[in-house]
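Protein folding task:
====================
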Amino acid sequence: MPKKNPSTAAQRARQRQAATGEKYTTALRAETRPTMRRPAVEHAMFSTEGAGWAPIIRRAERELREVWSGCPRPLWEEKFGDLCWKYVPFDAAPEVRAVILRAIREASVTCQTCPSPGRKRVVWVGLDWGGMAWVKTCCDACYYVPPNTGSDPDYQRLVNWYEDQS
């Protein structure tokens, strides 16, 4: 048996007009309006990808190769909105630590996804599976939280913690 074609927005607007007496154009706008503002950027957990942090990471890796012969390929990660390098040896030279700390300080005030100035904010990650609150460094343009998360206790707890820290 063939599948029934889903109704179009125009058909639903005509049905709404007939049922409620609402103007057709108003009904059509209501049928075609997105239900939720989609973010410009969908944040991911632990990810350092983005146009904001990429130049910082490239510069730090270049400087590390200059001051540390045999430098392993760094494993950069984002944790609590900060850039961090996994597996720094305890006996690393002060120059190596200075390069890493300089990159971390620069990333802490740079939006991760664009090169604008940013700060730590509580965002929502994992929109495709329901998501959870997560701390990222981002600017006003890249900051996005779905409207229905304001009452989530985990989200509120993180917002209160990071607003007190600022």
In short: The first helix runs from residue 9 to 20.
